Protein backbone atom coordinates (compact mmCIF):
# COMPACT_ATOMS: atom_id res chain seq x y z
CA UNK A 1 0.00 0.00 0.00
CA UNK A 2 1.42 3.39 -0.98
CA UNK A 3 1.67 6.33 1.39
CA UNK A 4 -1.12 8.15 -0.44
CA UNK A 5 -3.34 5.04 -0.32
CA UNK A 6 -2.82 4.85 3.44
CA UNK A 7 -3.66 8.55 3.72
CA UNK A 8 -6.83 8.01 1.65
CA UNK A 9 -7.84 5.06 3.87
CA UNK A 10 -7.49 7.18 7.01
CA UNK A 11 -9.16 10.23 5.44
CA UNK A 12 -12.15 8.09 4.51
CA UNK A 13 -12.28 6.66 8.03
CA UNK A 14 -12.27 10.18 9.52
CA UNK A 15 -14.74 11.56 6.95
CA UNK A 16 -17.31 8.84 7.64
CA UNK A 17 -17.20 9.68 11.36
CA UNK A 18 -17.11 13.46 10.91
CA UNK A 19 -13.80 13.56 12.77
CA UNK A 20 -12.09 16.11 10.55
CA UNK A 21 -13.07 18.89 12.95
CA UNK A 22 -10.98 17.17 15.63
CA UNK A 23 -8.04 16.49 13.35
CA UNK A 24 -6.34 19.85 13.77
CA UNK A 25 -2.54 20.01 13.49
CA UNK A 26 -2.21 20.57 17.24
CA UNK A 27 -4.54 17.70 18.17
CA UNK A 28 -2.82 15.36 15.74
CA UNK A 29 0.64 16.31 17.02
CA UNK A 30 -0.52 15.60 20.58
CA UNK A 31 -2.12 12.31 19.57
CA UNK A 32 1.06 11.31 17.73
CA UNK A 33 3.17 12.06 20.79
CA UNK A 34 0.73 10.12 22.98
CA UNK A 35 0.85 7.07 20.73
CA UNK A 36 4.66 7.23 20.58
CA UNK A 37 4.54 7.13 24.39
CA UNK A 38 2.26 4.08 24.28
CA UNK A 39 4.74 2.37 21.96
CA UNK A 40 7.62 3.22 24.29
CA UNK A 41 5.61 1.86 27.24
CA UNK A 42 5.58 -1.57 25.59
CA UNK A 43 9.38 -1.60 26.05
CA UNK A 44 9.50 0.03 29.45
CA UNK A 45 11.62 -1.93 31.95
CA UNK A 46 12.59 -4.61 29.42
CA UNK A 47 16.23 -5.67 29.34
CA UNK A 48 17.96 -5.29 25.95
CA UNK A 49 17.63 -8.97 25.07
CA UNK A 50 13.95 -8.97 26.08
CA UNK A 51 13.34 -5.94 23.88
CA UNK A 52 14.91 -7.67 20.88
CA UNK A 53 12.71 -10.73 21.50
CA UNK A 54 9.48 -8.75 21.95
CA UNK A 55 7.99 -10.11 18.73
CA UNK A 56 8.39 -13.70 19.97
CA UNK A 57 5.44 -13.26 22.34
CA UNK A 58 2.24 -13.11 20.23
CA UNK A 59 0.38 -10.89 22.70
CA UNK A 60 3.29 -8.46 23.09
CA UNK A 61 3.92 -8.54 19.34
CA UNK A 62 0.32 -7.55 18.68
CA UNK A 63 0.53 -4.67 21.15
CA UNK A 64 3.73 -3.34 19.53
CA UNK A 65 2.31 -3.76 16.04
CA UNK A 66 -0.90 -1.89 16.91
CA UNK A 67 0.91 0.95 18.68
CA UNK A 68 3.13 1.36 15.63
CA UNK A 69 -0.02 1.50 13.49
CA UNK A 70 -1.38 4.22 15.80
CA UNK A 71 1.82 6.25 15.42
CA UNK A 72 1.76 5.82 11.65
CA UNK A 73 -1.93 6.74 11.47
CA UNK A 74 -1.50 10.07 13.23
CA UNK A 75 1.65 10.88 11.28
CA UNK A 76 -0.18 10.21 8.03
CA UNK A 77 -3.24 12.23 9.14
CA UNK A 78 -0.99 15.14 10.09
CA UNK A 79 0.71 15.01 6.70
CA UNK A 80 -2.70 15.09 5.02
CA UNK A 81 -4.00 18.01 7.08
CA UNK A 82 -0.79 20.03 6.56
CA UNK A 83 -0.43 18.94 2.92
CA UNK A 84 3.07 17.58 3.49
CA UNK A 85 4.61 15.14 1.02
CA UNK A 86 6.11 12.61 3.44
CA UNK A 87 8.22 10.92 0.79
CA UNK A 88 9.78 14.26 -0.19
CA UNK A 89 10.22 15.21 3.49
CA UNK A 90 11.99 11.91 4.19
CA UNK A 91 14.33 12.37 1.24
CA UNK A 92 15.05 15.95 2.34
CA UNK A 93 15.88 14.81 5.89
CA UNK A 94 18.07 11.91 4.76
CA UNK A 95 20.02 14.33 2.54
CA UNK A 96 20.53 16.65 5.53
CA UNK A 97 21.69 13.72 7.67
CA UNK A 98 24.06 12.53 4.92
CA UNK A 99 25.90 15.84 5.36
CA UNK A 100 25.60 15.89 9.15
CA UNK A 101 26.76 12.33 9.67
CA UNK A 102 29.33 11.28 7.05
CA UNK A 103 29.59 7.53 6.52
CA UNK A 104 32.41 5.73 8.34
CA UNK A 105 35.46 5.34 6.18
CA UNK A 106 36.51 1.73 5.92
MG1 LIG B 1 -2.41 3.30 21.04
Which helices and strands occur, and which strands form pairs?
Layout: H1 3-15, H2 25-41, H3 48-52, H4 58-81, H5 86-100
Helix pairs in contact: 1-4, 2-4
The chain binds magnesium ion.
Task: Kindly describe this structure.
By secondary structure, the protein is mostly helical. It has one domain (3-100): Orthogonal Bundle (Helix Hairpins). The protein contains five helices and no strands. The longest helix has 24 residues, at 58-81. It is globular. The protein starts with a helix and ends in a 6-residue tail after the last helix. The model has no long low-confidence stretch (mean pLDDT 97). The structure holds magnesium ion. Magnesium ion (MG) binds at residues 35, 38, 67, 70. One of its GO terms (molecular function) is nucleoside triphosphate diphosphatase activity. Pfam families: MazG-like (PF12643).
How many helix segments? 5
CATH topology: Helix Hairpins
Subunit arrangement of the protein: single chain
Largest sheet: none
Query: What is the tally of beta strands?
Result: 0
Domains (count): 1
CATH top level is: Mainly Alpha
**SS strand fraction:** under 5%
Bound molecules: magnesium ion
Inertia-based shape: globular
Q: What share of the residues lie within helices?
A: 55-70%
Task: Calculate Rg over CA atoms.
Answer: 17 Å
Under CATH, the homologous superfamily reads MazG-like
Could you say what the CATH architecture is?
Answer: Orthogonal Bundle
Unreliable segments of 5+ consecutive residues: none
Secondary structural class: mainly alpha
